[in-house]
Amino acid sequence: MLKYFQPGQFTELFGGSGTGYDVAREMGYTDSVHMDLNEGFGQDFHQALRSGELNGKIGGWNALTDDIPVSSEFVFSHPPYHNMVVYSGSQWGKPHADDLSRCASYEEFIQKLNLVNAKVYASLKSGGRHAILIGDLRRKGKYYSIIKDMAYYGELESHMIKAQHHCLSDNNSYSGNFIRISHEHLLVFRKQGVWVVPITAVKKGVRNLTESDTPTWRDLVAASMEHLGGKATLEQIYSLLQGCEKAVHNTNWKAKIRQTLQMYPDFHRVKRGVYQSNSKVAA
């Protein structure tokens, strides 16, 4: 990122083990700022703020409550991936209430990450960029894609996939068959103007299939059969689909259901007025 964008100065958030600082110094950057919540990471943030010596490694910086003290052309952030690795009280120091790796829920983590990303965008100079490195995670069999759930601040300029190396989980043995997560996402957002903030936010909701006009009659009948255990009478299917969006707009909706049952190979007629899904027959 530094070689490609060649910023005049830059800021790193969630400095971690200090690799970013080491790379910056090797590349000749003498005024980059690297901050982390870990008080042992570097000089104390509040002391550095009072003295005006905001340079190098700075510890005790709280991403949720503290300002980003400098305006940069480039900000690189590498936040925790929710609770994949817990940092405060485990990797260093005592447990900290504002440690993003200690959020009580995934929803709380996304909310706090959005707050940090909004703060980063506001701190950028016009035309500046925020590069965020973030990964996916799996918890109790459920897959979470952080980049799909977090809000986007600024224009998404690039999305790169990075191989994930030296993971703590590499040394673990797992039972069962699943696809391992072996990648991370590097997203680059650009600030186009001083006052305008382009925001892309994800809104999640739950909608009943019968409330939409999008599914086909085959989809609705198949869902009804599955709901009824794979075998049902016409009256049972009518009862389930009566009042659905497609039925409301079709006066011959019962005839359409009968036609669907007879037309598609998904369904099998057991006897007059009784149908079975073919998956049930095969079982």
What does this structure look like?
By secondary structure, the chain is α/β, with parallel strands linked by helices. It folds into 2 domains: 2-200, Rossmann fold; 209-282, Arc Repressor Mutant, subunit A, CATH 1.10.10.10. The protein is built from 10 helices and 15 strands. The protein has helices at residues 2-5, 19-26, 45-51, 106-123, 146-149, 217-227, 234-241, 245-248, 253-263, 278-282, and strands at 10-13, 33-36, 43-44, 56-59, 72-77, 124-135, 137-139, 142-144, 152-153, 155-163, 183-190, 199-200, 231-233, 267-271, 274-277. α2 (19-26) links the parallel β1 (10-13) and β2.
Q: Quick summary of this structure?
A:
The chain has 283 residues and is of the alpha/beta class. It has helices at residues 2-5, 19-26, 45-51, 106-123, 146-149, 217-227, 234-241, 245-248, 253-263, 278-282; strands at 10-13, 33-36, 43-44, 56-59, 72-77, 124-135, 137-139, 142-144, 152-153, 155-163, 183-190, 199-200, 231-233, 267-271, 274-277. It is built from ten helices and 15 strands.
Main β-sheet description:
8 strands, mixed
**Helical stretch count?**
10
Spatial ordering of strands, largest sheet? 3-4-2-1-5-6-11-10
User: How many runs of DSSP E, i.e. beta strands?
Assistant: 15
Shape: elongated
For the residues shown, what is the average pLDDT? 89
Assembly state of the chains shown:
single chain
Unreliable sequence segments: none
**Helical residue percent band:** 25-40%
GO molecular function: methyltransferase activity
Keywords: Methyltransferase, Transferase
Protein name: DNA methylase N-4/N-6
InterPro entries: SAM-dependent_MTases_sf (IPR029063)
